[in-house]
Amino acid sequence: MIRFGPAGIPLSCKGRTLRDGIADIHHLGLTAMEIQFIKVNPLSRLAMDEEVAKSPRELLQQLVVTVGNSGAVGAQPTLAMLTSPLKRRDNVTTITTSLAKDYTDLQQTKALARALDVDLTLHAPYYVDFFGSDEARERSQRQIQWAAVLAEGLGARMVMTHLGFYGAVGHDQSIEAITQIVQGLSTWLSQYSKGTVRLGIEPSGHPDVFGSQQEVLELVRRVKGTVPILNLAHLAAREGKTFEKPEDLDPVIQEFLRASGGSLYLNFSGVEIYRPGEFRLTPIKRGTVRFDPLA
């Protein structure tokens, strides 16, 4: 089955909530949506008296993503953590997002998407840095994990991410440097979601950011549970290709299809290319890469 849908809430949508967007996608005759979780606003605080003995998922108007004792800030999320009663002096980390107010809100959106047969995926925050300092790596890991917590609550089947600038790590060493990190994220995600959410690795249109076609495919080959995202606009800018003919596209599609295990996830948009690499994404009709050969 082939599904089509937008990344984000359609411009045609009169409302601006996530559920408004899902309903509008259904009314347009589309069957998929890539949710944009662009910005993370975390806040760490002590559990309040009225919250003690309640589980984080029972709290109203709060999206708790981690819990620890008073000295453990930014712990790795676990199902047990988010379903166990809070104790006094627990340190809770909450996030504020337009996607949902609390876990009840997430469940209502999940139910709507399933009722309307809209397949959901979620894009993690764009700014991650796995090749930088220890602090930057830990922050990036938590952002992807928090995105995955939302994805699981929404019933999304995939959370996708870029992996950041090469920094001091050379292109040749980047695969070795990132494999163990992504392996840890994929293992955690499989355990947290009980296998319902997978980790998507997206290519980058910028040559100084990890994510060439071969890097993405090699990483997915090494790490079980990951999925390669075929973003043609990014690849066109990165690889210097315009994919003018169907025969230019077919080998790329087949390679990603094999690496995906037979179910391809593909992004398409217009793109403006200024050497080296991608300048910006654009509406399809204004971009360098045409949709006709793909169709």
TrEMBL record:
Gene Ontology terms, MF aspect: endonuclease activity
Domain Xylose isomerase-like TIM barrel: 104-245
Keywords annotated in UniProt: Endonuclease, Hydrolase, Nuclease
Keyword S-adenosyl-L-methionine: no
Protein name per UniProt: Endonuclease IV
Organism encoding this protein: mine drainage metagenome
Lineage: unclassified sequences, metagenomes, ecological metagenomes
